[in-house]
Design brief:
Blueprint (H helix, E strand, L loop, with lengths): L3 E4 L2 E4 L4 E7 L8 E7 L6 E6 L9 E3 L7 E6 L4 E6 L8 E9 L1 E4 L3 E6 L1
Parallel strand pairs: 2-11
Antiparallel strand pairs: 1-3, 3-8, 4-5, 4-9, 5-6, 7-8, 9-10, 9-11
Length: 118
């Protein structure tokens, strides 16, 4: 079982930046593929970005087209922490953001709200 706690959400204006963090309480964090998801009111859950569990030299990140070039996912295995740097935020990025750990099963955190106003 992996417990995840997100933080860093808030309310910003379009064009501004936010940095999300997700701390995992598990000694197996470094073995988990990690992702960020989001869900806007009335919409389905959307995958945002993912990063592999491989050592940093071989680690790979991938992004949804809607955030590519604006968001950066990273991880620090020594701190059991996942990050999402969000730049050039748009109103359509408004959503609850969840981190997820995948190792056989998928575990989600409780989410952190991001609100972007025009």
């Amino acid at each position: 079982h992996v417990q995840l706690v997100e933080s860093g959400g808030g309310s910003v204006q379009a064009g501004e930046s936010l940095a999300l963090s997700c701390v995992a309480s598990s000694y197996i964090f470094d073995k988990c593929g990690m992702s960020w998801y989001r869900q806007a009111p009335g919409k389905e859950v959307e995958w945002v970005a993912g990063i592999t569990s491989l050592p940093s030299l071989f680690r790979a990140a991938s992004y949804a087209d809607s955030v590519k070039g604006r968001f950066t996912i990273s991880r620090d295995n020594a701190k059991d922490t996942l990050y999402l740097q969000m730049n050039s935020l748009k109103p359509e990025d408004t959503a609850m953001y969840y981190c997820a750990a995948e190792i056989g099963s998928r575990f989600y955190g409780q989410g952190t709200q991001v609100t972007v106003s025009k």
